[in-house]
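The instructor's notes for this session suggest beginning with a concrete chain rather than abstract definitions. Hand out the sequence below and ask the class to guess, before any prediction is shown, which regions might be ordered.
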Amino acid sequence: MMRSLTKVSVSRPPWGPNSIRYQYDVRTMILALSSWPEIEQRIQICRTVVIPIGSNEQHGPTGLLGTDWLCPEVIAHEAHRLSDTVLVAPTFNIGMAQHHLGFAGTISLRPSTFQAAICDWVESLSRHGFQRIYFLNGHGGNVASIEAAFSEIYSKYSFGALHCPFMLKLRCWWQLPGIGAFADQLFPTGHGSHATPSEIAITQSAYPASIKSAVVTPRVAPNGPIRDAFDYRARFPDGRIGSDPLLASVEKGAQLIAKSADALIRDFDEFTREPFVKCS
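After discussion, reveal the predicted structure:
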């Protein structure tokens, strides 16, 4: 559902060149910009929350180190701006990126540390009454660890013969309904799997003052397996995998943000409507 918005003056936009900050009521808000009474009231209306999650790691010669957490954050905040349903938690911006540690600026958690932190985030939100916790992911290397964390969380209830009082959902932003096909349409060749033109385009649209330029050779990077940091740097010297990020543009990024935000709103609302099922 679209909502009416009240504009207020702002000296610096929350993200992007043309953004406007808005004043919200308890129906829809950013958790970090809310007070605890506001969140307490919000939980009485909707018990679903989205957590942008990603990684701070190299993204080739032109990609921002924060690309993998910036993309889901930008999409989630745009969905929040457009919808009266989407509540956004703080971004989980450090992930499992050990294979990128051969490049300056990468920060990684060990899989065990990452999983433990996810468990603590979930338990914190569940304690306050949130019943549906949606992780919008921006880093493919996080997926195995997030799913393992989900299993660890659910196992406590399974082994204790208890009903779990919440649901967890993981969705990579590029796997939102229709987004993968749209990215293929925008970038029929040279998309690849790391430092992709789609993710670079999103950050270019959101942060145009931080656009980078470089000469990349070859234009389309090679593909290959992912193992440890030394192996990765040897196989992919400039950090890219199968991609040509020079295909990115601010305009294509704006299209991806708009379509992804719309898809997130629909996916979030569908998750909110998913019923709990209990055996008798």
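Then share the key points. Confidence is low (pLDDT under 50) at residues 1-27. The longest strand covers residues 48-53.
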